[in-house]
């Protein structure tokens, strides 16, 4: 969890959030009883929402929701969105009818839920989810795009009994200490968002995960659409070509960088069609072209880029597990093919992941790794740990004491480079704040 004072000046919102963090000794405790209790006290807002599209998975949840939002907004619809974590300000987690929630509305909702909870144990994510649901129930919108925080079955967002549809993005290994050490157990947790009577769409899955998801869907009488079987999307001549039983769509390339974004866009298109959303092919084309989702292989311009030698590039990416690292490495290979530059990774990682696993896909690609301890994160790997595992993997790696020092060290290499901040959305948030370009 980001320590809010490390990102922005202390505010009333920060003070409220700090109080909420103290309501439960554990940051994560996957149950639903505390959430249900609080929701009953505040009038069960989950029963008074616009049509809900609920998304779970290991990677690609936020990007898939970003495409859906772009499609719906291109068609003129008002869209609520809940995602996590935030990068710079907590407000980023909640969009009301397309706009980030104001601090005034957010504070009122948080304090209302705090008072209703009466000091009883509840996790930070549970009580902030309750506040978000209260806001979504009070502001008129056409749809709500709802992202799980972790898992699905016992996630605080899994309180909507009758969603319009559910999406499960690719399932892979992550958060094993909470979700289980096998892919079938993780997939079972993700499958918990499936609901009888709600249509479902699955992203591309490993065989073990696919078997569990299909079994759980069948148990509920749900026949899902599955990427690679019922629909697909691919890059062709620089375009996105989407295909399902209704035919082909020839679309602009996704505005989000990386080959994995063709899969994410295709998943969102399949959901749009399968759920019967009022979106035209022209709306889809516009959404693919105009979609925005910060810190997903995002180029950075301005103050921080100016610290590097002329001709350099600066990127941030929030991929934080082995699956995300593989997607990032593949995307950087494509970028390298278009414009060769030596690659430098500035890396910070939470201690629930192994640096060696994250770095493995970059073997033979990286000139140097600069390791950071993510500021303000007690559960971050020490920079020394990242350096040790990087060197064991054959990488040249050194510690840096801060974002600015890491960039200064990269500049000392003396030639144009492609510098990528990687390993954590929390680190990406600090970079955006340092650059003065927070998400809006």
TrEMBL record:
Major enzyme class: ligase
Gene3D superfamilies documented for this protein: Mur ligase, C-terminal domain, Mur-like, catalytic domain
Enzyme Commission identifier(s): 6.3.2.17
Mur ligase central domain residues: 55-223
Cofactor: Mg(2+)
GO molecular function: ATP binding; dihydrofolate synthase activity; metal ion binding; tetrahydrofolylpolyglutamate synthase activity
Alphabetical keyword list: ATP-binding, Ligase, Magnesium, Metal-binding, Nucleotide-binding
SUPFAM superfamilies: MurD-like peptide ligases, catalytic domain (SSF53623), MurD-like peptide ligases, peptide-binding domain (SSF53244)
Gene Ontology biological-process annotations: tetrahydrofolate biosynthetic process
Any one cellular-component term (Gene Ontology): cytoplasm
Catalysed transformations (reactions): (6S)-5,6,7,8-tetrahydrofolyl-(gamma-L-Glu)(n) + L-glutamate + ATP = (6S)-5,6,7,8-tetrahydrofolyl-(gamma-L-Glu)(n+1) + ADP + phosphate + H(+)
One Pfam family it belongs to: Mur_ligase_M
Protein name: tetrahydrofolate synthase
Source species of the chain: Devosia insulae DS-56
